[in-house]
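Bumping with the actual sequence this time:
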Amino acid sequence: MNDVNDQSNLMEAFTEASYFVRIANNWVKLKIGQPCPEVAKAAEFKTWAIITAYNPGGTQVSDDDNRKQHQFLDEETQCFERRLEAYGTGEGWPKEHGFFLVGISRDQAISIAKKYGQAAFVFGTDVPELIWPPLTA
């Protein structure tokens, strides 16, 4: 299985990846650092995050492991005021399914991302940015 464990490669892969949110049956594409009015409007200009449980730490794991972790994330994020399907993907990297969570704070998102071993997640109100949770508490 592939991994993107070299820190500079990991940062480049996450920054260059495309992220998608399902809004009204359409997939809207986000890129890091580029404003996305459709997403800001869908989030009612509140903070949001895209978080996945797939491939912790940038290391590809089995489809079965990814599905299991995604199910746990699905159950944990049911409580958010608005939650939409989302995924990220990059060159030579499979889709990583996750959720677009509206009204989440940066600290809540960091906590969830760390719980699922994620090296980074997308956060914003209008312009998507990558947040790199600290590796230790």
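The tokens above came from a reply further down the thread. Residues 63-76 form the longest helix (14 residues).
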